[in-house]
Amino acid sequence: MAHAIVAVCYGLVAAAAVIFGTVYVLRGRIMPYHEEALGRRFGELDPALQTLLVAMLRVVGGELVACGLGLALMIGLSFLSGESWTIWAMPLLALGIVLPNLYATTFVRRKTGARTPVELTVIGVILVVAGAVLSLL
Predict the structure, then answer these.
(1) Is the entire prediction scored with pTM above 0.85?
(2) Which of 27, 48, 91, 135 has its CA 20 to 30 A from that of 124?
(3) Whole-angstrom Cα distance, residue 56 to residue 66?
(4) How far apart are CA 102 and CA 95, in angstroms?
């Protein structure tokens, strides 16, 4: 039973990374909370800054998709087959997804007051910690 819960915890993190990453890659503008942090709408920004921000968003999005897919494959191909190395590899990869996002969302919220998705990121951290602890039982 704990094995299945671990897979669900990490699977939710992987799915969220792929979904958010895909949105970031496909979106041609910054997110509303980015606009809120800047205090300006995307269309009001200098075209060079628009280009830079969209490029950065696409890089972050691509990395989220890649890490999310890697985690999903690790769950499906190795963890569920009983590979013991995944007990250590999954939390490392998952923490690589959630911790930089937790830092960025809290930093931007603290500095600008923008309503960044801190709460969703905290849920991701909780899922990773729960998955890691349960995988050791």
Answers:
(1) yes
(2) 27
(3) 15
(4) 10
